[in-house]
Amino acid sequence: MSPLFPALRTADEKEALRFGERALTYAELAGAAGALTGRIAGAGRVAVWATPTLETAVGVVAALLAGVPAVPLNPKTGERELAHILADSAPSAVLAAPGDLLPPALAALTRIDVVPTTGAADLPATEPDDPESPALIVYTSGTTGPPKGAVLPRRAISGTLDALAEVWAWTPDDVLVHALPLFHVHGLILGILGPLRHGGSVRHLGRFSVERVARELAAGATMLFGVPTMYHRIAESLDTDRELAKALAGARLLVSGSAALPVHDHRRIAAATGRTVIERYGMTETLMNTSVRVDGEPRPGTVGVPLPGVELRLADESDGIGEIQVRGPNLFTGYLNRPDATAAAFTDDGWFRTGDMASLDADGYVRIVGRKATDLIKSGGYKIGAGEIENALLDHPGVREAAVTGEPDADLGERIVAWVVPADPHSPPTPEELAGHVAAQLSPHKRPRTVRFLEALPRNDMGKIMKRALGSGKGNGNG
């Protein structure tokens, strides 16, 4: 198998990584990672304390070069969940920045401080040549039980990043800016390993702010990766920030992922900048499945078409909606220590069951309805996707944020419940007004039967709304 990062072997003085004021060229990154590979060579697995820093990037790159599976750890993980991940993955060491204070759960592991020195060091002469060799073990969010470790092989990483290079025309000239966490697929694999594989550069903001995004795009960055929460904040700032609009207009590619970007934010950004945000769709277990092509038709509300090499089908389809199933080189090899869960995740003919529900446009564009468990509502004999109702609610001027769930109903089977953060908390729209708005935009059977007002929606680290938390929450007002 060819090297994951060919540019590291050219000793180039081009900037590879920048975190705030700290940066490494490709030659310096090769030296820092090369020095670390000798210290971890032969380890079974290593954990990485995945802060948004140079040390995390160097640690993961070194592990990949050495052929040692890396387990990124979210520094915000609670004690119980962290203990589970460590017991399950059994790393022999933890990589961390010298100043990091690690929790007691990691005390039994050998600590290896990552020091991004700029001296010369030899890279391993060869990398693992088995494409199925484990590269990363990334733990799922654990919404249906303890987190499961998805074992991602080297071919999944290279295959996904090469496919994205084709559909996004990703080249060594691109400079990516983002502020995503480095313990998830989006921020780590796409946001750090992607630029390094293609010989480009990445500038990590450390912490997201609209001002930082505008500054980096104005200073030559060509690509922006973000989640819908970030793009929503950008959209809200565009009316009064002409420099931000100018900076976004100069970007080559704006990409949103990890959750659906509301249509109204698409429209606001496009109207102010002339740039359309591209959406893509992936999971921890599959990396990337689909994307809107950079040369394709922008179509808000869709996540594009399958990536090169990825097959996609809708299973158990009815009313135009079915479960997305995929197969291809982008897939994980299984859940660590969970042959039962691995077997249940695949069909007998080798398709991975995503649990995501979608419809297909006539030309193959995929429209995600939502998670089978939380976003598909069966009401009055209809299959209804929460996403389209959320977009309709967000088109109402009195709605700042919205989420839609289903709740048991003796008559309808499930009734549609809207959770709304009003634009003006002192003068929210009435439930009847919102129900009528949705009925007029979509159809009467898709209107919310209950509306609950909140100060904020519960979200995880990636900006995804945690709908299971909504189910037990208490809002004000109903209709």
UniProtKB/TrEMBL annotation:
Domain of life of the organism encoding this protein: Bacteria
Pfam families xrefs: AMP-binding (PF00501), AMP-binding_C (PF13193)
InterPro entries reported in the protein's UniProt record: AMP-bd_C (IPR025110), AMP-bd_C_sf (IPR045851), AMP-binding_CS (IPR020845), AMP-dep_synth/lig_dom (IPR000873), ANL_N_sf (IPR042099)
AMP-binding enzyme C-terminal domain span: 388-464
Annotated ranges, domain AMP-dependent synthetase/ligase: 12-336
Family matches, as SUPFAM superfamilies: Acetyl-CoA synthetase-like
Similarity remark: Belongs to the ATP-dependent AMP-binding enzyme family.
NCBIfam families with a match to the protein in the record: PRK07787.1
Name of the protein this chain belongs to: Acyl-CoA synthetase
Lineage: Bacteria, Bacillati, Actinomycetota, Actinomycetes, Kitasatosporales
